[in-house]
Design brief:
By secondary structure, the chain is an all-alpha fold. 88% of the residues lie in helices and 0% in strands. Helix 1 runs antiparallel to helix 2 and helix 2 packs across helix 3. The longest helix has 44 residues. The chain is elongated and about 65 Å long.
Length: 130
Amino acid sequence: MGDVDHAAADRLWQHGLHEDNVRYQQGNLFLVAQSLLAVAYSTILTAGNGTQPARVIAAFGVALTVIWVYVGNRHRMYAAALQCRIKSAVPDYAETTAACAPRGIGTTAMLVYVLPSLAATMWLVLLVIS
């Protein structure tokens, strides 16, 4: 591997690390926003302000969840394309990921689909009961 190939592989690797960091930061942002909406929902209900404001908060929770899935899915597709490039540039990485491939649902799918699905279920249940 020449210096140019090594430099390109290093840039790809750094880009992959950056994208992993972005994915976790996005997940944290959406989880904090969901938590704040849940606190607002419970505060409104316990304050006795009626169910209409609580329903509005729950509807915002559903909308936020849809946005979370959309953003996560777009990022997952981009990161998957980047990971393919990294695997072709860094054979050791390709071997390691092949040896450690998760059975069933992977971490990325959990973050992109399962967590938002749980949040959506919560908000839909809260819409129904309020």
